[in-house]
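Appendix B. One record, verbatim.
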Amino acid sequence: MTTQIDDDLWSAIGDPTRRRMLDLLLAEDGGTATTLSRQLPVTRQAVAKHLTVLDAVGLVRMTSAGRERRYEIDQAQFARAVAQLTAVGATWDARLGRIKRLAERIQRDVQQ
């Protein structure tokens, strides 16, 4: 992934409504803007706009059946996002571990 794609992906995931939509799509194995709007505190039109953002970054795929548009999680892109988040978490765990060790060393030096 390029940096721009990463930035767009995390910007899309950063919105709490979109995260809730992803949760619902995962739990229900897909859905439409109408079915999602029934479970969210936003209008169907707002849900459709959020789905457009998620589609643009590849987290969901849209299929048409007549007038209905059904959205499903793109498992490969979602797995890449999870892997990136796991890597970021590991990086921050390591940083926080170093900060903790540094703080403990400073505290020991002050006490001596």
